[in-house]
Amino acid sequence: MVKAMARHYPLALAEEGFTLDKVYKAFRMTPPEEQRTDAKVTSLINESKLKMEHYSTILDIKKEVWDELLGDRGTFNWEGMNFLESSFSLNPLPEDNWEFDYLIARDLYGKPVLATFFTTVIAKDDIFSPAEISMQVEEKRKTDKYYLCSKTIMCGSLLTEGNHLYLDRESPLWKEAMKMMFEKISYWQEQNKATTINLRDFDSEDAEMDSFFTENGFFKMEMPENNVIEKLNWETQEEFLLNINSRSRRHIRQEVLKCENIV
User: Can you give the pTM of this predicted structure?
Assistant: First the structure.
């Protein structure tokens, strides 16, 4: 139907002596070419108000800067990222070596608008598939270790959970900062020959963000649920033991604490 309309609509306009410009004016619409030009100009103006900083190691970012932006969201504070970098580098197997990329976008006043990190890893393509499918794939991996495995660029990492993206939604530049981030991801994808981009752990009820991702070529899929503990009512090991029942306390002492000093 669309092909037929694309073919016959211009012919019908010509037969009636109309042009597309007259149609747009009649319906008070801006021609697509002008819309694209206006959008591009606006984007360039906004991008000139932003500076995107890129780092390949957390060691190049001041600890207080990173922790202020993302330090309270999970295990990916500065110390946590330093631990991940040291753990997933210089290993014999390719899947145990990750590439790290950190982004911080600032406005003209130096105020952060966006901050996040990405890891490029060899991941299983069936990571979010139903269990029965993964079981079949794992059978094939017994003889072909990297069957259905590919390079993936992931927001966050395979070992971290939570919202990995700091984004100042009050800033008028937040969408431009996101678009600059998308450009960086596209560059890394081409450079690393990655087949998958995984932007994860966003609010499933955020309609504006859903729409923004869709407009920029991404599609939404459900992730496994996170377990969030809002507040702990204990600070020490002794206080923790006092908060559990006697059976659990006995189990902790007999089966867990005895291994405390084992390396």
Answer: 0.72
Question: Which token pair is 58?
Answer: 């957390």
- Two structure tokens written together for 155: 């927001």
| 39-71 per-position pLDDT tens digit | 555 555 556 789 999 999 999 999 999 999 999
Q: What is the pLDDT of residue 46?
A: 56
User: What pLDDT score does 51 carry?
Assistant: 95
Residues 6 or more apart whose Cβ sits within 8 Å of residue 111: 168, 171
